[in-house]
């Protein structure tokens, strides 16, 4: 399989892993009973997906002559990725077992903000503004 | 390596709907699978309910969004009658997975009712979990086909 196809597949698969976490946390934010094992798998997928989207995304930008890592839409995507991870940290801490009340009260808000940021990332990836 | 990677603007919105639907579909199916497997292992009735709702309220509407987006983007690209294998894999997986989703949802619904009545049998949730696990594998293959586009 050509390098481009492999990188693109791993990049997209990583993005799907991120969205699995968004869906799982959405269920919990909407009131589903939380389960430690489901939360653990979800958080692991967020970690794998986050690392995969960033590493394979940057690798793709370096590999393809049509794009550069300093292109505006790629910089925007990296900023959104950082923001999503910041919100994600808040959501994970708030939904964790034994979370203190202050973190727990903000967990749903942090989750929905992360979800909006991930959707914004997807929009940037598809529309590629300025490319 | 230089590839024409920028598509016409008119293709972007249908593609966004298709990809967003596919991502939500995979997320819902994975959530259902996790919940059903957890309930299979420890008999947790709340996890059966979560699995059922993930399929009914997550996977079914996401499938519709993904499928409508697929038809729309295929018509924009003039691929409705294409013989390309990646298109064939995409449409055949999408259409056959609808049947799997419906059966898994119905079985998870039966499992939820049984769990609500305190019956210990786990047959329905097991079969539903297996169907959902098969869906996850099929979707992984489809993601590969959609991204690498083998001829």
* Average of the residue pLDDT scores of chain A: 94
Strand content of chain B: under 5%
Give a short account of the largest sheet of chain B: none
Largest sheet of chain A: none
Figure out the total of helices of chain B.
4
End-to-end separation of chain B in angstroms reads 20 Å
Shape descriptor of chain A: elongated
Helix content of chain A: over 70%
Radius of gyration of chain B: 18 Å
Helix tally of chain A?
A: 4
Residue share in helices of chain B? Answer: over 70%
Instruction: Describe the global form of chain B.
Output: elongated
Descriptive overview:
The complex is a heterodimer of chains A (131) and B (151). By secondary structure, chain A is mainly α. Helices cover 81% and strands 0% of the residues of chain A. Chain A has helices at residues 3-29, 36-63, 72-95, 101-127. In chain A, helix 1 packs antiparallel against helix 4 (101-127) and helix 3 (72-95) packs antiparallel against helix 4. The model of chain A has no long low-confidence stretch (mean pLDDT 94). Chain B has 4 helices and no strands. The A-B interface holds A 1, 4-6, 8-9, 12-13, 15-16, 19-24, 27, 32-33, 35, 37-38, 41-42, 63-67, 119, 122-123, 126-128, 131 and B 1-3, 5-6, 12, 15-16, 19-20, 22-24, 26-28, 30-31, 34-35, 38, 44, 46-47, 49-50, 53-54, 58, 140, 143-144, 146-149.
Task: Provide a brief overview of the structure.
Chain A is mostly helical.
Topology (SSEs and partners):
The complex is a heterodimer of chains A (131) and B (151).
Chain A: H1 3-29, H2 36-63, H3 72-95, H4 101-127
Helix pairs in contact in A: 1-2, 1-4, 2-3, 3-4
Chain B: H1 9-42, H2 45-76, H3 85-116, H4 123-148
Helix pairs in contact in B: 1-2, 1-4, 2-3, 3-4
